[in-house]
Structure formats: C-alpha cells, structure tokens
Design goal:
The structure holds 3 protein chains of 3 kinds. By secondary structure, chain B is mainly α. Chain B contains 13 helices and no strands. Chain B has helices at 2-29, 34-38, 45-55, 61-73, 87-122, 127-141, 144-158, 170-200, 203-210, 215-243, 247-252, 258-268, 271-299. In chain B, helix 7 packs across helix 8 and helix 8 (170-200) packs across helix 10 (215-243). By secondary structure, chain C is mainly alpha-helical. Classes of the chains: A alpha+beta, B mainly alpha, C mainly alpha. The interface between A and C is medium-sized, with 21 and 17 residues.
C-alpha cells in the first residue's frame, strides 16, 4: 500500500528555509524514534520498517522514501484506510531539523513550522501570543495576531467577555442559558457540534456487567433524552451508538429507549435485584450531578449505585486498570474517521490505557473492524463498520449518552470566525476585526 | 542572637529533607500516574513504559528520591513533566507575583485591622463596637471564592473600575489584594480588640493613669507595646500562608502565582513542579516564622529566645 | 446590677439561635420540607418561590432542605474539630513556650512542616488513606488546625513566662510541671481562647469548602455548587453563603 506525495513549491518554515521531502521523513521518524519517547507512535507504526526502527534494529524507516526534493512516498505494511486522516494530526506536522537540534528540550517554547502564525510569546498558564506569518504560502491571516488568554475560572471569563476585553470565548455550560435568553447576545452564539461521544462505560470483563442482559437493563432504566433536555439543557445530540452522528455514513437503528418496565423485568429474571455496583467519577461538579441522576434512575429498578469520586489522576489510573464497575467518560475524535471511534474503544487489543476501558472483547467485532481498516473501498468499509457497530449496540458495553455540542460566543465586531469540528482544521485565517 | 538565627537557619536543612522525603513517599503511594497526564487517551503500554523510564518513575521511591537529591545538588530543580520547562525558572517567575499579592493584602489588612480593633476596644459596648464586630465576623466567615466573585461582579463588571483578571501592574493587583486582605483584616481587628481589652484591665495601666499620663500616650506606648506580640504572631501566620499562595484568589483573578502553580502540579502529578514548590514554600515559611520570632525578641524585651532555665 | 444584665443579653441571643438551629437540624426529618436528596429533573434551577423557599439546584433538589440538612453536618464538624485542635494546640503551645530550648525548636519545626506542606496534597493523602466521611473531615481539619493555636499560645507564654508570679511559684516549690499547667495556662486561657477561636474558625471555613467531598450535604461544599449556578445577581450564591455566615457568626 503506497501513497505518493507531491509537495507544493515555495513553502517555507518560519526560519525562512524552504520545505523539502526529507523534512517530512525527519519529522515522521522523530515520532517513531525511541529516543524521542513520543506517546504518539501509533500514528506511524503501520509504516513499513517502523517496528524495526522503533526497536533500534534499523537506522531509518524504509517505508518513508524520498524520491526527490518535492516528491516522496510512504509505504504501509498493509492497507490502512484511516492513514490519510491521521496525517492531519499534530504528530504529523513537519518541523525543521536544525531548529529541533538548536533548542533541544526547549523546542516547544520556540516552535517552528509552516503555518499562518508564529509563536511570539508563551507564558504558561497565562497567555499565548501568536503573530501573523507574512511568509505563509496560502491565504494570509487577516489579523495581526491572536492572543490566547488562559483564565481558569468560568465566571471570570464571562466577566472579561462582557467588559469587551476578550473577543471570543467558549461559552461555559453554566452561562449558556443566560446568553441564549438574552436578545442582545444570542445572535453571536456559535455552535460547535463536537465529534465526540459521552458514555457510561461498564466493565464487561467481570461480574456483574459481564452479563449483557444486565447491561441492557441499565440502558432501559435511564431516560437519556430527558436528562439531555433538562439537566444538560439540550446542549448535545442524543447518541445511538458510539460513532458520532456527523461521522457516521450509514444508518443505524434507533437506540434503546427509556423503558423502566422492561429493565425491571430483566432484573427480576436475572435475579439481580438489590445488587451493589460502584461507579467512579471525577471530582467535577457536572459529572457528580450526572452520576447522582443515574444513581437515582438505577435505584428505581433495584440497582444500588455507590458513587466514588476520585481526583483526575487517580481516576484515570483506576479506570485504565479496570477497577470500577461503571464510569463516566468521553471520547473525542483525533481524526475524522469512524475507525477512530471503533478500533481504540472496542478492539480487544486496546484494553485499558489504549482506549478500550470497558475491556470489551468480541472476536467478530475485532475482525469486522480490521476488515474495515484494510479495505480501501469506502462502501465496503462502511459496511464492515456498520455491522461492527450493530453488534456493539446489541452487546452494549457502553450506554452512549450524547454527542456534546459546544458553544462559543463572539463580540459584535468579530467577523468571519468559523468553527471547525476538529481543531487542526482551524487556521485562523478567516477571522477579522471590524470596528 | 546571631547564634540563634544561625541555628534556626541550619534547622531548615533537616526540615527540608523530612518534607521532601514525605512528599516523595506520598506521591508514590497515592494513586495517580504522572505519565497519564502526559500521554493522550490512546497510549500503548510500550509508549507508557518508555515515558516512565524517561521521567524516571519506574524506579522505587528511594531510587527516585536519590535521583532527585542528585539533581538538587547541581541546583537543578528538574523540568516539568507536562510543559518540559525548567521548574526553577518558572518558580522564580511566579513567586514574585505571589509575594506582591501577599504584601499588598497585608498592606491593606494590617493598618485597617489594627485601627478597627483599636476603635472597637476603646468604644467598647457602643454602637460602633458592635458594628465593627459584626463586620469582622462576617469578614471571617465569608468563603473567599464567594467574596471574590461578588467583588469582581461589583467593582469590575458593574462599576468598571478594575480589570477582572490578569497578572501585572497595580490595576490587576487591587481586586485580588483586597479580597485576600479581608480575612486577615477581620482576624486582626478581633485579636487587637481582645488583646487591648485585656491589657486595659491590667494594673500598670491604672498606674500610668494615676501618674497623670495623657490617654494617648498610654494607648500608644503602654497598650500597643503589650499588644504587639499576638498581633505580630497573627500577621506572621497570615503572611506566611499567603506567600504559599492563596489558590482560590489566584485562580479566580487569574493571578499567576505560586499557589495555582502548586495546585495544578499536584492535580497532574507533575512531580518536579510539586517538589520545587514544596521546597520553596517550606523555606519561605521557616523564614517568616523566624522573622516573627526575632521580632518577638525586639518588640518585647521580656522574651528571651535562648530559653535557658534559671 | 446594670452590668450583669448587659452580659446575659449578649450571651442569650446567640445561645437562642444556636439552640434553634440545633432543634431544626435534629428535627429535620420530621419537618415538612423536601427530601434534600430527591432529584426532580422537571424543576431544575428554579428561583426562590412559594414552593421552594431557596429555589432548586441543577438537579431539581430543594436548596432549603439541603442547607438545613447540611448545616447539621457542618455544625457538628466545626465543634468537634475546633475542640480537638484547641486542645492539641494549647498543650503544644504551652509546652513549647514554657520549656523552650530544644523542645521549642522541634515543636515549632513541626508547625513549620505542617503549615508549609501543600494542603491539597495532604487532603488527597488523607482522603485516600481514610474512608470518606465526617470523621475524616474532622481529623483532617484538626491535623492542620492546631498549629495556629500553638503559635499564638506560645507567643503569649513567652511574654508571661518570666513574670514575677511565675518566679514566686517556683520559689514556693511548685514543680516544673505544675507551673505551666496551672498558673500559666489559666492566664493564657482567656486570651488564647478568644483569639485562637477567631483565627481557627477561619481556617475551618476554608477547609470545609475544600473538604466538601466528604459529605454531599455539607454546607461548605454547597456554596461551591451554588457558584456553578451562574446567576447574574449571584443571588443563589447568596443564600447558602449567608447560611454559612449565620452559623459562623454564632460561634
């Protein structure tokens, strides 16, 4: 499986040097290089020769071939359909070797790339200042620069915005209804339908939730639609399965509806009335609230939920190790391909920190996902993914809740601000200030 | 005196050893893996192992501790696991901010607190006394995040007098300093009041009055001199705690100080940052307590710090 | 005599209010108020009204009921933690100030140790080692709370340590133990108590807020939740905030 790339001529790094094929080879190999210790090796490990390079057996990755200064080739060990989408991610950005070697450990404070902005100043936890790159090869930015202010407290953010000190903010959930109901402001709200899924995960590898009927009962017991509309103020789209609605190119049957009667029947039939399960959550107020709502629904069908709050680091640790029976988590798209929502989350090779935190293992699903990854025909791919998702919905290791929609709000003098579902698409070149 | 100071300063070293050892032990024993803050949601077990080796958390806590001590002996506090920036540089950048905030808060709290306490004591039982009492108890009881928000909404949003957040010159300093000064001011006013009232009961005050000394002289010379010790103690405790960073205030007002830095380090299990902040914080506290004790000696000659039994 | 009646009035009022709060807390299960834990997704974030005197929170739970139930916990925790901290702080402060020398240095180093250790780390450690609950919160607050008492008392002791009455006691033959315990503490008690109490309950409030994870209905924590209910007039924040203040004023 080979991809040939033709580079645009005249693209320069921010230090002035022209970009050439060997820069890509250098940047990609750097990710795989064991000395770099990057956690993102998975982006490139399907390239031919990658494994040998990573183990230290080879001095280069022979799957990255430089044909001439502006042509290169990448050869994969076998066909892998999401590969091109993965190249849009930050680990695949091209960087100049001489700058990396010059700054070494401080490279992240002095980054160099080919984008429409350059980093002027970074005060961690305070602000990040970007300046327009006059040598950008594409349409240049319309603003002189962008300042990212880091404000840890929601209320402070809103105050700053209302005073006109900040041009665009992501609207905190707590302030959403205030601005939505304000005639002056609600036309400046922009919605961002996120490529994500929020779910209640159930540890499917051991009792009690290794019983798929019990998992179904949990799903019948919770009125997700109502929670979305009331508690969550409608800030999302109800989820049918694990793949976000915007990425899914096939039809899926409507998800499980709220049916507490059926849930109670299942409980009775399985003799599970009165069981105790534990649910881990982070110490986030919204999540705790949600957990308590879920707890209240489940207690109505006879399942006692014990909520355990953990602080973020401890929480991740515990969930990765498979400690809790149930947990609340979300998955956000790294690249725009439904494989991103199937392989890491449900393939049996990814138990724990690699993504599959419900420890779900189903051979049929594994095979279907792999077939999808290896097929380059889009129709075939979608068929495989569709079948896989159907089985997953049947087995229900997750109760998928919703795909969260985020909101931003801008000042009246900001024009052309577009929202993109994946942040890497946003080059910041369309936004302009008109006063 | 010099010997005493030297002795106290030398004690800093075993204290730091003890604190860093305990901190290392706790960090290792507690759940929460620093590596997980560094990797994305999709890290393979090999990548995690690699990073673990890189930052050195694969060794047991003794191994890590020794490694850290070696680092310290070069004057190096290590690099943040998260931002990879030099920890000492960041602390040196943020600590002066916290110092300015602490100083400003005390600058407001100390004179106001003492004066209010004075007035309250001398006008005891009258309306003004009761008023000050209510106000100071309220000041003590208000949770800081609440007072911070109310003050921000009122002075910043409504009256547009000061910017709501940011680090920098005096414009940004006023609101957080004011909010931070409230509990200290309230405490000082109550403590001053109580202490003065007790002193006024003392026989030597009557003696002074009998001798015909003017009231004002009595207040300032006799009363204040005797009241100074508890007041200084409180100032020391409050100032010390502010220097260690008033996390809530710094967070709400976006003031880039050491308190917030420490807290975020703890949440992410960024060991080098946490250790660096602990070392700094301890040294600061010890210094402040030492200065308080020295002041004790100079302000009240009855206090002898060498403590030899007769 | 006129002086006497002034004192008793001043004492009477707070005692009455505390008694009232106490009664309400104890009798709360019997009172005609909502179940503080009952979730009602149809009445989310209602402003105060006839039905819900303090409004409802983000899950539809009645805030008034939560304040009443939570107050019970907060009061209990405050009393016990204050008492324990005072006891420890007193003892250590007197010993440190009176005996001085190495004991003083060691004890004050312990104080420095506790005060400089980041409270969040300590909090996480304690929350992991001990099970969540009211007792844990009390232990946690006391572990840190005694330090201010200790330093205050020590300061006071240092001032009176060399006073004539102490020499007199020694001359009479009082043992080294008796002097600090009887004579010095009685002198220090009064001032120390008032000062220390004032200082103490300040840290109590902060820690209560931070320790809210121990109990759902704990009032300190409740304030933080109210903050999430962003209201321009910050009215919702006012109510549990004032509830908190009322309790503290009385102590």
């Amino acid at each position: 499986m080979r991809y040939k790339f033709f580079l645009k001529k005249g693209v320069r790094f921010s230090n002035g040097r022209g970009v050439e094929s060997h820069d890509f080879k250098y940047s990609f190999e750097r990710i795989l290089d064991p000395k770099t210790k990057s956690p993102n090796t998975w982006v490139f490990d399907k390239v031919e020769g990658a494994k040998e390079f990573q183990k230290g057996g080879a001095k280069e990755v022979n799957g990255f071939r430089v044909i001439n200064d502006h042509t290169s080739e990448i050869k994969l060990r076998k066909p892998f359909s999401p590969f091109l989408s993965m190249l849009t991610m930050t680990p695949a950005y091209v960087i100049p070797k001489e700058e990396v070697e010059r700054w070494k450990n401080d490279f992240s404070s002095h980054p160099s790339g080919t984008g429409p902005f350059v980093l002027k100043r970074w005060l961690p936890n305070r602000e990040l200042v970007l300046e327009k790159n006059e040598n950008y090869f594409d349409r240049k930015a319309k603003v002189k620069g962008i300042v990212y202010k880091i404000i840890p407290e929601d209320l402070t953010t809103i105050t700053e915005f209302e005073l006109g000190n900040i041009d665009v903010i992501s609207l905190p959930a707590s302030a959403y209804s205030k601005f939505k109901n304000d005639k002056k402001w609600n036309k400046y709200i922009m919605s961002l339908e996120g490529l994500n899924t929020y779910y209640l995960g159930m540890n499917s590898s051991r009792p009690p939730f290794n019983n798929p009927d019990l998992r179904k009962a949990v799903s019948y017991a919770i009125d997700r639609k109502k929670i979305l509309e009331t508690f969550y103020e409608g800030r999302g789209r109800l989820a049918a399965g694990s793949v976000p609605d915007l990425l899914r190119k096939w039809d899926v049957k409507a998800g499980i509806n709220y049916d507490p009667q059926r849930a109670k029947e299942i409980i009775r039939r399985e003799g599970m009335s009165g069981i105790n399960v534990n649910m881990y959550v982070t110490a986030d107020q919204d999540v705790i609230d949600l957990a308590e709502i879920i707890q209240s629904y489940l207690s109505e069908i006879g399942i006692n939920v014990n909520i355990k709050q953990l602080e973020w680091s401890a929480y991740k640790d515990a969930v990765n190790k498979g400690e809790p029976d149930m947990f609340w988590l979300s998955w956000w798209a790294d690249y725009p391909d439904p494989e991103n929502f199937l392989f890491p989350l449900f393939h049996s090779s990814n138990l724990g920190p690699a993504g599959n935190r419900t420890r779900y293992a189903n051979k049929e699903v594994d095979t279907l996902i792999e077939k999808g990854q290896n097929s380059l025909n889009e129709n075939d791919r979608n068929n495989f993914y569709k079948k896989a998702e159907e089985i997953i919905i049947q087995d229900m290791p997750w109760v998928s809740f919703w795909h969260r929609t985020d909101f931003l709000i801008k000042q009246p003098w900001i024009k052309g601000y577009k929202v993109y579902p994946i942040y890497t698409m946003d080059k910041g070149t369309e936004v302009a200030i008109e006063r | 005196m010099a010997a005493y100071v030297l002795k106290r300063l030398l004690l800093l070293i075993p204290l730091l050893f003890g604190i860093t050892l305990l901190a290392f032990f706790l960090l290792n024993a507690l759940p929460g893996d620093p590596v997980l803050s560094l990797v994305g949601e999709r890290a393979s077990p090999e990548a995690i192992e690699n990073i673990r080796k890189e930052i050195g958390v694969d060794k047991g806590f003794i191994g890590q501790y020794i490694g850290y001590l070696k680092l310290l002996s070069h004057g190096d506090f290590g690099r943040s696991y998260y931002t990879n920036r030099d920890v000492l540089k960041d602390i040196v950048m943020k600590f002066p901010n916290t110092m300015r905030l602490a100083f400003a808060a005390m600058l407001i709290a100390v004179p106001l607190g003492i004066v209010l306490g004075f007035i309250s004591a001398y006008k005891r039982g009258r309306f003004i006394d009761r008023l000050i009492n209510v106000v100071s108890i309220t000041g003590l009881s208000i949770p800081i995040f609440w007072s911070a928000i109310i003050i921000m909404l009122f002075l910043s949003l409504k009256l547009k007098l000061f910017p709501p957040s940011g680090t920098g010159d005096i414009r940004f300093l006023v609101l957080p300093a004011f909010v931070l000064s409230i509990p200290a001011m309230a405490t000082l006013s109550r403590v001053t009041r109580t202490t003065i009232l007790n002193i006024l009961k003392m026989p030597y005050i009557n003696t002074a009055r009998a001798k015909g000394l003017p009231s004002i002289k009595i207040s300032i010379v006799h009363v204040l001199k005797n009241a100074i010790i508890p007041i200084v103690t409180i100032i020391g405790l409050d100032f010390g705690s502010y220097l260690n960073g008033a996390v809530v205030t710094e967070t709400i007002f976006g003031w880039d100080g050491i308190g917030r830095f420490t807290m975020e380090g703890i949440i992410k299990r960024d060991y080098p940052v946490i250790m660096g902040c602990i070392i700094f914080g301890t040294a600061v506290f010890v210094l402040v307590n030492l200065i308080t004790d020295i002041l004790y000696h100079y302000l009240d000659p009855r206090i002898r710090l060498h403590a030899k039994e007769k | 005599m006129p002086k006497k009646s002034k004192i008793s009035l001043k004492l009477l009022l707070p005692v009455l209010v505390i008694a009232l709060l106490f009664a309400v807390s104890v009798l709360s299960p019997l009172l005609p108020i909502y179940d503080p834990d009952k979730i009602d997704l149809d009445s989310i974030k209602r402003p105060p009204g006839m039905d819900h005197p303090f409004g409802t929170d983000s899950k539809g739970r009645d805030i008034f009921a939560r304040v009443v139930y939570g107050g019970k916990v907060s009061i209990g925790v405050a009393i016990v933690a204050a008492f324990v901290s005072a006891l420890i702080g007193f003892g250590i402060g007197i010993a440190s100030g009176y005996f001085g020398g190495r004991l003083d240095t060691v004890l004050m180093s312990v104080v420095d140790f506790i005060l400089s250790f980041p409270s969040l780390l300590l909090a996480i450690a304690i929350s992991v080692i001990l099970p969540p609950g009211i007792y844990t919160v009390m232990i946690a607050i006391s572990t840190v709370g005694w330090t201010s008492f200790a330093r205050l008392i020590r300061g006071h002791v240092l001032t009176i340590k060399d006073m004539p009455f102490v020499d007199a006691a020694r001359a009479v033959g009082c043992s080294n133990l008796r002097i600090p315990v009887l004579h010095i503490s009685s002198k220090s008690c009064d001032d120390g108590d008032q000062i220390g109490r004032v200082y103490y309950h300040r840290s109590n409030i902060e820690l209560s807020g931070a320790w809210g994870t121990a109990s759902n209905s704990n009032m300190g924590f409740h304030d933080k939740r109210q903050q999430g209910l962003y209201s321009y007039r910050a009215m919702d924040g006012n109510i549990p905030g004032t509830g908190n203040i009322d309790n503290c004023v009385l102590f």
